[in-house]
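Chapter review. Work through the record for UDP-N-acetylmuramoylalanine--D-glutamate ligase before attempting the end-of-chapter questions.
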Amino acid sequence: MKALNTFANKKVLVLGLAKSGYAAAKLMKELGADVTVNDRGDLSQNEHAKDLAKLGVRIVGGGHPLELIDHTTALMIKNPGIPYSNPMIKRAETLGIPVVTEVEIAGRLADAPFIGITGSNGKTTTTMLIGEMMKGSSYEPIVAGNIGTALTSVVQKANEKNVIVAELSSFQLQGTIDFHPHVAVVLNIFDHHLDYHGTVENYAKAKAQITANQTADDALVYNADSKRVVQFIAEKTKAKKVPFSLKQKVANGAYVSEETIYFKDQAIMKVEEMGLPGEHNLMNALAALAVAGVYGVSVQHMADVLRSFKGVRHRLEYVGVVQGRTVYNDSKATNSIATSQALHAFPKKEIVLLAGGLDRGNSFDVLVPDLVKAPIKAVLLFGETQQKLKDACLKARIPVIKEVENVEAAVPEAFALSQPGDVILLSPACASWDQYKSFEQRGDIFIAEVNKFR
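C-alpha cells for UDP-N-acetylmuramoylalanine--D-glutamate ligase:
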C-alpha cells in the first residue's frame, strides 16, 4: 500500500456505517486522519462501531447533524447507496468538500493494478470468471468491491504481484475522481437505478467514470452489441478498445461464430461446452475472455475455466435435481432484465417461476414478451409486487398463476405444480427488502426449503 500522508491530521467524515464504511474508517484512521463516522441508525450496539471507537474514531448515530461538516472537513467518504440529495452531502458540496466512495480511496492507495467491472447485469458472474481466469496470468488476483468485500479492506495487503479484480456499481463509480483501472469492463447499460440517478444519461455518466482516467496504455473491454455502451462510453474513451460481441466478428476482441467461441480469431471452445447456461452468461464469458486475452492468459486455461465454472451464489445458481426437478436459485435477479435473461436460459424445459418482492413503483410489462416466449407452466407470486406481476402474467396468458405469502410458502407449491423434467426457478425480478434482509437471505431460505424435498 502506498504510504500517503495526505490525510494525516485531516478531518474525514464517513457517512454510513456499513461494510464499506467500516473498512474506510478503519483505513483512514490508520493513515492518521481525524475520523468521524455518522449513520442515521442507532449505533450503540453496533459491533463495528464499538471496534472503531476503540481505535479513536468518533461515532455519531441516530441522525445526520449538519454541524459535523464545516470548512475544516477535508473529505467525505459516503456509503454508495446514500443518495446525493442527502442534506449532509448537499452541505459538503456547498462547502466545496470532496465527496467520494471508498473506491476512490482504494484506487489512490493500491500498489496493485485494477481490473474494474461494471454494467447493469452480469457484474458478479463476470468478476468471478475474470478472477478465475487471472489465476492463469503472471498476477495473483484479489476479487473485491461490490461483490461483497470492501476495496479498502484489501488494498493494504495487495502488492505489485497482485491484480485487484473489482466489481463496481454505478453508485460506487459516481463517487470517484481519479480512479484509474488498467482494464475497465462495461457489460451493458439498461434502465436501472433511475430513482437514484434520475435519467439514463446520468446513469451512463456514472458508469463512464470507470474509463474517465484511462489512457492509451490501458484497455476498455466493452459490449459492442450495446448501443448505449458504444455511445456513452466506448466512443469517448482514450483507452485501447477491446470489444466483445454475440452478433458480429470483432477485430481484437471476443466473439461467437458458428457456435464456437473465439478470441482474436483463435477458436477457444464450443459454446455447448460451457458450464453456465444462458445467452447472458455467454456474453459474460466473452467479456472475461477479452480481459484474460489482454493479460496473455493461455487459451487452454480460458477454456478450462469456462468448462468448470458453475456460477456464483444466488445468480442462476444450480441447486440440483430434486425429485426429478432441476432447481435454480436466481435470487440476485432484482430487476426485470435479470429475470428475462434467466427465462431464456431454459428454452427446452417447462418452468415453474417464483417471483416477487419490493415494489419500486415500476410495472412489469417489459417482462410480458419473455413470459410469453418462455415455456412457463406456472408462476408463484409473493411480496409487495404480487398484483403487478400478476397483471403481467395475465397479459402473457400464463396457465397457472398463484399468490403465496413468501418464498417459504412458494417452494412446496412449486413441487406440487411441477413434474420430473421441469425447472423450478427462483428469479424474483425485485429486490428483497420487503420481506428479507437481502437477496442472499432470500436465496438461502429458498435452498433450505428445496432441500426439505430431497
